[in-house]
Predict the structure.
Amino acid sequence: MKRLAHDGRVYVRSGQLPSTAGGVEGIRAAVASEVHVLLRRLWKDWERYASGPEGPSSAQQVEEALETPAAHQAAELMGRFAAECLMWPGATFMERAEADAVVRRVVELLGPDARWWSTYDSEAEGVCTGISACTFDGLVTGTDGRHFIVLIQVGED
């Protein structure tokens, strides 16, 4: 996951979920909590620039914002958010082919039964529900029930 990070723009986090996270709803809540940890970390970098002075969404708000894409959609979004700037079309952080190769490996490690979530609303033609208090953000997170990954890109105009 660290290969997908870009200083100050693309943040990543991965690790093991607490053993108390049980059942689908418990796992979803535990993943939302891990997303919130990453949001608090990036807020330290973005607080002075962010359009929303209230700060990032709470873990419960993150959980409510999560959409459920298919695995191939989540992988495509993760590659896109790691490689291509949401704020400035055409600007890139890394080669898309490299991002996609890393993402394929991450998806493979989590396995075919992994659960995926994003703030990307596929029915709203590319709209992402904001959770960072920045103008732009895009999130993809996944878990196999034991391990989790989180990737979020942020930007401010």
Notes: The longest helix spans residues 23-46.
